[in-house]
Structures are given as C-alpha cells and as structure tokens.
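Weekly modeling sync, notes
Attendees: S.R. (lead), two postdocs, one rotation student

Agenda item 3: backlog of single-chain predictions. S.R. asked that every request posted to the team notebook include the full sequence so nobody has to chase files. The rotation student volunteered to paste the first one in as an example of the format we agreed on. Action items at the bottom.

Example entry:
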Amino acid sequence: MATTQTNQASNKKSGAQTSAAKKAISDETKTEALQVAKSTQKPGQTKEQTKLIAQGIEKGIAEYKKLQKGKARERDKARKQENRAKAREANIAEQDHSNIEDRAASPYLPWGLLTLSWIGFIAYIVFTQ
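Predicted structure, as returned to the notebook:
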C-alpha cells in the first residue's frame, strides 16, 4: 500500500512536469502521436500503456521538430551569408570594371600631349625660319 501511495505521489509530480511540456506540444502532434501509438498497439495492452507510449512519441516528435527548426535556421543563415558574399563579390567586380575603364581613358592623355607638343615644335621651327 505504501508503494502505491509513493507511485501516486510521483505520478502527480510527473503530471505537473508533463503538463508544462504538454503546453509546448501542439494538438496536431498529440493526435499524430496517438494515431501512431494506436497503430502499434499490442493485443493485451491497456489504454494507459497506450497513452504513455503516445506521450513518448509526442516528446520524440517535439524533439525532432526542434532539431529541424534549428537545422532550418542554420541553413537559412548559411544561405544569407552566401548571398552577402556573392553581393560583395559582384560589388568588387563592378569596382574593378570602373577602375579598368578609368585606366583605359588615361593612356590617351599622354599620347595626345606628346602629339600636341611635336606639332607645336614643328610649327615653331617652320614659322621662325
């Protein structure tokens, strides 16, 4: 009789803990877990045993969903970092192209000044004689 009282007391304590956990588990998960527990039910199994199995399945499903959310978050972070890196590379490439264009225009200036100076030198010689 003493053991049944301690079992009931421990069930009440665990019931308080599971009620907090049940709040975190959605109704969809509960029904899904109950369906799985009923589908795997053995012929001599009681309803309480089936409920316990369903609770275990609920916890497993909840844990799986948490892991999947974490993995999805990590994938999303990685995807965003890749997008940022690609944007940076594209930005750097655009800057390189603009620098190349600036450099392409600059060689005409020295050649133009050289040509102008030779024309001026030849004109000076021709007109001073």
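Discussion: group reviewed the output briefly. Residues 21 and 59 are 8 Å apart (CA to CA).
Action items: rotation student to repeat for the remaining queue; S.R. to check formatting next week.
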